[in-house]
């Protein structure tokens, strides 16, 4: 009975880590990016999704395994490689996390506005920020966060599957163009990868496992399953949303540029669908606010004892600053697309650090990182670096 209880407990933490990573990825940016690129690329967007899934799995497998084996946080690993590198990486991750969170807060505000038209997006953002802050002010916030992300993660997937069926997409064409695309969009690939494993997101689950005590070489099978599960959960949602949007635009219907994902839900399932969108957008945003704040602060809390001592207070400040910036800047739709591209630019740096760490005895001990995984990670690093340069040169701000 004891072994069964321990196994169940370990799987609960693994599922929580996978959902923390997935629901951090499945934010309002995820919903907006998927819808906008589907409208632009039509069935060929399936190819972008396929390539992004392959890149996501390769990046996440490498990063999660090294964190688990070294039993150290990413920034501490980087500091062992080169003093100061961890601090640089942490600052980079926090900047990307803050950018994500501004978009997440904006998305939460849009979701509340759909559900309760009397509330402006800014008012909705403030209410959502208060809810997110509340999660960190209760005891055992980690366990609550795991349960919170699991429930809303399942809810998001279920609602989007419903709308995907309601829009009746040309599934055959989507499947064909996934492997034989009419056009390839490099910026879309960078944005999707950045929105799924870029910036802080890929470390969200890895750090969560570390805190839960799932670490060391003996835990690698579970870590691998958790890493792949997180990507697959996010990918199921991406595919369902793609099919929903494709079903709408293939009928010649126009999406509202001010809120593209809302148009998909409204055009596919009427006003009920529109209200469902509000719930999905809010659920996606609030879980991403939780994941972004939690992981961003986890990156800097080992840099100074005072940060660790006041971790919850800093998380509250992080969310409040994100909310204040959104209230003053606005333009959530544009911002939600750009933050994915921004975090995609960070991935080659963070992945490169972990690949170097994988072959340093001072970090991983007697662990031998699989050659195929190193090669896989190296290919992803080079590909993302090249595509990131292209994105910087061609993206319109």
From TrEMBL:
UniProt signal peptide: none
TM spans (from-to) = 12-31, 43-68, 80-102, 114-136, 148-166, 186-206, 227-249, 279-300, 312-329, 335-358, 370-393
Cytoplasm keyword on record: no
| Localization, UniProt | Membrane
> Pfam families, alphabetically?
Nramp (PF01566)
InterPro entries documented for this protein: NRAMP_fam (IPR001046)
Q: How does it sit in the membrane?
A: Multi-pass membrane protein
Q: Which UniProt keywords apply?
A: Membrane, Transmembrane, Transmembrane helix
- The name this protein goes by in its record: NRAMP family divalent metal transporter
Say which species the protein is native to: Fictibacillus iocasae
